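Here is one chain, start to finish.
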Amino acid sequence: MTDTTGSDATADASTDASDRPVRLDDGEALDRFVADHDLALVDLYTEGCSLCQAIEPVVGNVARATDAAVGLLNPRDDLELVAAYDVRSVPTLLLFEDGELVDRMAEGFRGTEAVVEFVEGR
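Its structure:
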């Protein structure tokens, strides 16, 4: 996936993610990211997925428009992660509040307004 944050460097999981998505490397990074933020939206994607590529700018917009920290994670072959979050398709957006999964969105492409409403409607 390309970096749509407007920067050549992507943030790491220890960076304050209030205004741009953070690339997460694995399930452990996901756990730390979720624990470090009161509200976190995580975009699970795969390389080469056209819907995943289309939604990446949307999640970038959501990072700037909401109080949610936004993470990007390619679960690759991490079957434990896929099973733990019951991921059946990509992209899948997972919404965490206070470290707990509270909602998910996996019905295909959604625009910025719909995803902002999803995050703020918690």
